[in-house]
Amino acid sequence: MITIIDYRTGNLGSIQNILKRIGESSIVTSDPLVVEKAEKIILPGVGSFDTGMKNLACLNLIEVLNHKVLKDQVPVLGICLGMQLMANKSDEGELPGLGWINASVKKFKFDDSREFKIPHMGWNFVTINKSSLLVTDTSPETRFYFVHSYYVSACEEKDILTSTNYGITFTSAIEKENILGVQFHPEKSHKFGMMVLKNFVNNY
User: Is 155 one of the catalytic residues?
Assistant: First the structure.
């Protein structure tokens, strides 16, 4: 059973539907008592950094998530904003992040906005930086769907799982022990996204 955190952002239905397609049951919840029993967690998210952190705080989810992830070391997968909230801070807001990974969130800035539009939207390839069970069975044509104006800048090279080029090379996935995050949307990435979610379900 996968526990999907509902903090009033994100494509919750899409994530639940693609998990169902790979044969995995899930529950969507904002109840801290339910989160306490989670065996695997997905932290999705679409929207702004400060709104995400405010919503987590208002729903009394930060303490229980910290306990589950940092103490119990339950596997967690952050998606898009969910990955960004794992960092220390963001250029997008003023509130501190969860601080699960030593990283900050930066805004794309390009001199030629005609060639590299913001947000970065569409399909793109990833380069695998280290061996990981999350991206096993990948091939040269593996690509994912992105929609984002901000990206995670990891301070520790060992935490970078994949990188992607869009005007600059940015971190598109992270892995630190039980903490995983992807900037792309696996729920919109068809068979490639299903592969990543299946790996998360089966290998962690």
Answer: no
Rounded CA gap, 116 and 124, in Å?
Answer: 13
131 φ, ψ to 5°? -65, 135
User: What tens digit of pLDDT does each residue of 115-170 get?
Assistant: 899 999 999 999 999 999 999 887 778 899 999 999 999 999 999 999 999 999 99
Residue 185 vs residues 72, 115, 146, 166: alpha-carbon distances, Å: 26, 22, 6, 16
Is pTM, for the whole model, over 0.85? Answer: yes
Rounded Cα distance between 102 and 89, Å, is 10
Catalytic residue among 80, 92, 120, 175: 80
Alpha helix stretches (DSSP H) within 131-189: none
| Contact between residue 40 and residue 201 where contact means Cβ atoms under 8 Å apart | yes
From the candidates 120, 148, 175, 187, give the one annotated as an active-site residue. Answer: 187
Cβ atoms 204, 133 nearer than 8 A: yes
Give CA 57 to chain center in angstroms. Answer: 19
Give Cα 24 distance to the centre of its chain: 19
Q: Residue 21 contacts by C-beta under 8 Å, 6 or more apart in sequence?
A: 194
DSSP 107: E
Residues in the chain: 204
At residue 52, what are phi and psi to the nearest 5 degrees?
-60, -45
From the candidates 120, 148, 175, 185, give the one annotated as an active-site residue. Answer: 185
